[in-house]
């Protein structure tokens, strides 16, 4: 079949809207019609050419929501007509990682996914006979995409596509980091570094978990209003505050129970660790720093009981946890609508990248 898609033919070039050929689903795969997709920093990072694992030409996009239109042989967990969210972190429930019960990093299709291919080692996308690669196993910048069954989460049908797509990455990453990775408890104190599309979701996750004090840190003063809107109780303007760590330790009488780095800046990662309370404070790294970057602290920070952790996709097991997060949204326990600041057509997708990079949008969403 044919599908309209925004293709990254080369790094550092705008995406091109073209009609691709798309092969149907093989055994264990499903064809999904995307209804909406968010634009995230990770897409921009890959397009920038800085991602050493970036493959071109490819169809980027990993934050989508749509409807199953066809299923391949052997597919049992979803059917035609089901509403689904593609998962860049699949959940096979059979590999050693899934069975460990200790991680959401399923390894079932990791190798081929990283090469921009489906599990059988081929691509379903082509253009004038030339192979176009998949991206993060999702490729949501195409109106139709093919996914392994283990890489789709079936969700309720009354969830609107244009907002629920954000659960495919940003919402789950932020809220999940709080409830899965950190396990914040009522009364805890929390610091969130970087109040963008991820950090604001950490804030609302902390509010949901019952945190008492939620401190937001950002260089951009406009983000204070956004943070307060989602449950932040105190704001630290990092540009105006000489020693951010000392300020947070002072505000909390010794440091926070949990901190979250939502920027990808290794200097801020150190601040996030060092503002944690001696003896038990835990810092969770969410931001993705450039390839090759390293983090530093004095080992004594860990000897004296601080913990340094990281999380991918909020520690969420996709097929199990993503439908629950959609329920929390539909039950108004978390909010998504105000965070979708821009809606665009596929033809306007490059403008969506510009809005994100200028800091004008929290989340831009393409509606098919
Ligand atoms: P964003 O650009 O929307 O937000 C970043 C915020 O940090 C901005 O408000 C900016 O003003 C602020 N900031 C920048 N430098 C700062 C500094 N030195 N001190 C304080 N604030 C500063 O980004 P986002 O979409 O929220 O993504 C954040 C990070 O999370 C990115 O690195 C992204 O790649 C990563 N991410 C990780 C996962 C995961 O699973 N771990 C998933 C999605 C995104
Ligand atoms: O299993 O080894 C692995 C890698 C899993 C990839 C996890 C993705 C990390 C988060 C990247 C940002 C996503 C938008
Ligand atoms: Zn698995």
Automatic annotation (TrEMBL):
Reaction catalysed by this enzyme: a secondary alcohol + NAD(+) = a ketone + NADH + H(+); S-(hydroxymethyl)glutathione + NAD(+) = S-formylglutathione + NADH + H(+); S-(hydroxymethyl)glutathione + NADP(+) = S-formylglutathione + NADPH + H(+); a primary alcohol + NAD(+) = an aldehyde + NADH + H(+)
Record-annotated Enoyl reductase (ER) domain positions: 12-367
The keyword Disulfide bond is annotated on this UniProt entry: no
Enzyme Commission number(s) from the entry: 1.1.1.284
Keyword entries, A-Z: Metal-binding, NAD, Oxidoreductase, Zinc
Record-given protein name: S-(hydroxymethyl)glutathione dehydrogenase
Role, per record: Has high formaldehyde dehydrogenase activity in the presence of glutathione and catalyzes the oxidation of normal alcohols in a reaction that is not GSH-dependent. In addition, hemithiolacetals other than those formed from GSH, including omega-thiol fatty acids, also are substrates. Also acts as a S-nitroso-glutathione reductase by catalyzing the NADH-dependent reduction of S-nitrosoglutathione.
